[in-house]
Amino acid sequence: MVREDLNRKVELAFLAAFYSGMLTEKQRRILSLYCEEDLSLGEIADEVGISRQAAHESLTRASEKLAEMESALGVAERFRKIDFGLENALDALRRKDYSRTETLLKEMLTIETE
Q: What is the pLDDT of residues 66-85, one digit of tens each?
């Protein structure tokens, strides 16, 4: 359960890096307190001056909005693919596998233009 909660927070923070501008200021604050400050819903409620239920609802709406944006745009997934490809290309370059490096770089260019 702790690992799932941590994974959820990491994923929310990652998506927020791309789409937080689509959230309200209050949602951004609550999300930051939840993901970055690791506060509980009760602590967030006290910090923001709302009920625990309102904190939960705002966090849920923010999470849903981030998921909707990622589903529609896929920016975070493309970033992950390119990041992974760059790591692999760097590894291939270190091994002097220039053919593999070229293939990976071409794949990443294709990802970027999708």
A: 999 999 999 999 999 999 99
